[in-house]
Design goal:
about 30% helix; 4-stranded antiparallel sheet; alpha+beta; 5-stranded mixed sheet
């Protein structure tokens, strides 16, 4: 149980397809799969990674160990999407850049804000400006760029969390001063374009990036999706490394490109929204390109079912 970020929104991805989805909810603290599971061809673990799901995911490892049907996203690999874990696993990969993300307690950050501790000494690879967010937050909630110790003190006075993620801020703006964020979906290791958002602000969300108001931005997104094969080839090594390091069959990546041409990874997660529900008259290019991902997912299911026979 939870909001949209708690589980993979498969109904968005598989809208208007000939695939039936049964949602089976697992309650924390109870033996998973103790209630009979409906007849199915493939089981996908849709639960996302956060503190409240760790015990459930661990219990599912044993429950699914000898599952008689194909399984997508084995539960033991889902913790690989945790921000600090992902940043550690994806270091030192050619063509891929991800800032080291570290977990900090409130008391540690308060000491840094009071200048009793040095940021770079206690959190290697971090120096102001940094980005800070509470552990478990999504969609940019309480995610802020912090320029100095005084700003950190102000942030902590407004945000009451006890644990935070902290990472070096990277300016990934283009020559025109705009920031561009790509959402890529990996299906059985194959990359597909989900969207591209363009904004004057470094923290980009598609709904507030002005994509609906600016036809030029939509033209650039259309060009990105049309020529995505070139993007995927350019970042082939990085994308394959993400697939191999996470071992997740279905995964989304929010990323950008650094001025040096590296794939700059913000976040990896399997519970991001992939859809083609934007107005067709405004986004006529999206249906065709998202259909590629939908077809690939269906083909992947067919391969799994055939191999299990």
């Amino acid at each position: 149980p939870g909001d949209l970020a708690t589980n993979i929104p498969l109904d968005c991805l598989l809208e208007n397809m000939d695939i039936d989805i049964d949602f089976y909810y697992v309650t924390a603290g109870e033996q998973p799969l103790s209630v009979e599971v409906p007849e199915h061809d493939v089981l996908i673990v849709a639960i996302s990674e956060f503190d409240g799901t760790h015990a459930t995911l661990e219990a599912l490892v044993a429950a699914l160990a000898a599952w008689p049907k194909p399984v997508i996203n084995w539960p033991q690999y889902i913790p690989n999407t945790r921000r600090n874990t992902a940043s550690q696993r994806l270091q030192n990969i050619p063509g891929l850049y991800i800032p080291t993300t570290l977990q900090a307690s409130r008391s540690e950050l308060l000491a840094i804000a009071r200048e009793e501790l040095k940021l770079a000494v206690n959190f290697p690879d971090c120096e102001f400006p940094v980005i800070v967010r509470p552990v478990g937050s999504h969609a940019g909630v309480n995610l802020e760029k912090i320029e100095h110790a005084v700003a950190l003190a102000d942030y902590l006075a407004r945000v009451p969390a006890e644990a935070f993620f902290i990472a070096r801020f990277i300016d990934y703006s283009g020559a025109d001063g705009l920031f561009r964020k790509f959402r890529i979906v990996l299906i059985d290791g194959q990359p597909f374009a989900s969207h591209m958002a363009i904004s004057a602000h470094w923290m980009i969300h598609y709904v507030n990036a002005g994509m609906y108001e600016d036809a030029d931005k939509r033209l650039e997104e259309a060009a990105f999706m049309e020529h995505f094969a070139e993007f995927a080839q350019r970042h082939h090594t990085a994308l394959q490394a993400i697939y191999q390091q996470t071992q997740l069959d279905y995964l989304c990546i929010d990323c950008a490109e650094t001025p040096a041409g590296e794939l700059f990874v913000f976040e990896i997660d399997h519970a991001m929204v992939v859809h083609a529900m934007d107005p067709v008259d405004m986004f006529p290019y999206k249906q065709r390109h998202i259909q590629k991902a939908k077809d690939a997912f269906r083909a992947y299911l067919e391969r799994l079912i055939t191999a299990a026979k």
